[in-house]
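Reopening this one. Same input as before:
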Amino acid sequence: MSRSVHGGRHELGQNFLHHPPTIDRIVRLVRATDGPILEIGAGDGALTGRLATLGRDVRAVDLDEHRVRRLRRRLPSVTVVHDDALRIPLDRPVVVGNLPFHLTTPILRRLLATGSWAEAVLLTQWEVARKRAGVGGRTLLTAQTAPWFGFTLHGRVPADGFRPKPSVDGGLLTISRRPEPLVDPAERAGYETFVRQVFTGRGRGIEQILTAAVPKPWRALLKAAGIPPSALPRDLTPEQWAALWNG
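Same output, byte for byte:
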């Protein structure tokens, strides 16, 4: 096989999915959505071919020009584009992707900051999927974006379900744009700054942290939102974060 001008599989971060149960689950999740589909990182097309059977407009993107050429021949009903996932317009209602593990965070940040998509079905490293879905506590990135997006974990994918086999398992994650945001989108920059201040602030619990970060009487608002004063930022739900900001 010819080497891409962008490098081999290692440089491209390619771990091709060949785990039938996961492919079936992704297709079921996508089937429950509506509208044209954008697939990021099509690779050898194991998922692309199944998406094509849904009878919807599919645009598949890959950085490897050789794989793009082969997919165009094999799947004429799919629009296969030679492009970079960090540059392509995220302008389709549904985004699907087995994300290159080394680019997971920048792609996720871009998805959560730009585009008009409504649903994303993504395969990432297991720990990334867990953290985004708030398992074991929410992260700064999840808390900053949760007023506009909902995150759901759909299961773990064994490392040997990929070729070449990565050093970690994968995780199947869906992200849904909220039809009614919990915080006014015009206030997003200020809200994200507020959440960062709280996550990086000092104190033994949320009341102390909030008071140090933004001095004001917080106790009544915490009580109204059902937040114990001893809670930590990672423990708060999206609704509780929104209540603190909107209050």
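So the earlier flakiness isn't reproducible anymore. For the record, The chain has two domains: 9-177, 185-246.
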